[in-house]
Design goal:
The chain is an alpha+beta fold. Helix content is about 30%, strand content about 30%. It has a five-stranded mixed beta sheet with strand order 2-9-8-4-5. It has a four-stranded antiparallel beta sheet with strand order 1-3-7-6, with no helix packed on it. Strand 8 (about 200-210) and strand 9 form a beta hairpin. The model is unreliable at about 55-65 and about 75-85 (pLDDT under 50).
Length: about 220
C-alpha cells in the first residue's frame, strides 16, 4: 500500500469520526431543548395552580359576618318600617340622617335566638327619641329583662351603639360600647344602662351582643332629635 493511500484512509476515517461527533452533539442539543421545554411547561402549570382561583373555595365572608354572628333572617320576621313612617319631628332631618340601615333594620325588635338566653328590652322602643340635655349630650338609656336556662348569666354581654351609616357597621365602628350588668329579679334578671354621648340628629341602632362568641341577641333603634 502506498503512502498516499494510507493518508486517504486516515483522512476518510477522520471525516466520518467528525460527522458522528456532530450528530451526537446535535442529538444532545435536541435532548436539552426538549428538557428545557418540558421544564418550562411544568413551571407554568405550577404557577397556574398557585395563582388561579379555586372554583370550589367559598367566597370571602362579609366583614360583618366575620365579627358579628346573626341568625338567618326570616321572611316572616322582616321589619317593614321605612322613611315613610317617620313622624313630623324627624321629617325635618336630612334624609341621609334617618335612612334605615338594611343590614340591621330587618333584625329590629326580633327574637333572634332560642335559648339559653333571651332578652326583652323595655326601653327604648323603635319610636323612642333622645333630646339634647343641658350639657349638650344625649342620654342613651336601655333597660329590660334577661332570661336564661342556666343557673346564672355567666357570659359577658355588652351593648354597642351605631349610627345608621352602613359603613360604620361594616367596619364595626360603634359610637360606644358598654358592658351590661345584671341583677336577679325573681326568676329572671334585669338590666339597665345609661350612657351620655354627644350625638348628631339622626337614626341610631343598638346591638346586644354576647362578648365572647360575637352572637347578637337583640337589635333596636332610637332617633336623636
Amino acid at each position: 500500500m502506498s503512502v498516499r493511500e494510507t493518508g486517504n484512509e486516515k483522512q476518510g476515517s477522520g471525516f466520518y469520526g467528525s460527522a458522528y461527533g456532530e450528530r451526537r452533539k446535535k442529538r444532545h442539543q435536541k435532548g436539552r431543548t426538549r428538557m428545557n421545554i418540558l421544564l418550562g411547561i411544568l413551571i407554568l402549570l405550577v404557577l397556574l395552580w398557585l395563582f388561579l382561583p379555586n372554583p370550589s373555595a367559598p367566597p370571602p365572608s362579609d366583614p360583618g359576618e366575620r365579627t358579628r354572628e346573626f341568625p338567618a333572617a326570616s321572611s316572616n320576621g322582616t321589619n317593614t318600617s321605612s322613611s315613610s313612617s317617620i313622624d313630623q319631628s324627624t321629617a325635618a332631618l336630612p334624609p341621609e340622617a334617618v335612612a334605615p340601615n338594611p343590614m340591621l333594620e330587618i333584625y329590629v325588635d326580633q327574637e333572634l335566638r332560642e335559648g339559653p338566653y333571651r332578652f326583652e328590652v323595655n326601653y327604648p322602643n323603635k319610636e323612642a327619641t333622645l333630646s339634647e340635655q343641658a350639657d349638650g349630650t344625649h342620654l342613651f338609656r336601655i333597660s329590660g329583662n334577661a332570661y336564661t336556662e342556666e343557673e346564672e348569666i355567666a357570659l359577658p354581654f355588652r351593648v354597642h351603639l351605631f349610627s345608621n351609616k352602613p359603613a360604620d357597621y361594616e367596619n364595626f365602628q360603634p359610637i360606644f360600647t358598654e358592658d351590661l350588668v345584671f341583677q336577679v329579679e325573681g326568676d329572671h334578671y334585669i338590666f339597665q344602662l345609661s350612657h351620655p354621648e354627644e350625638l348628631d340628629p339622626g337614626l341610631y341602632y343598638y346591638l346586644i351582643e354576647e362578648a365572647e362568641s360575637g352572637e347578637v341577641y337583640g337589635v333596636g333603634k332610637v332617633t336623636v332629635l
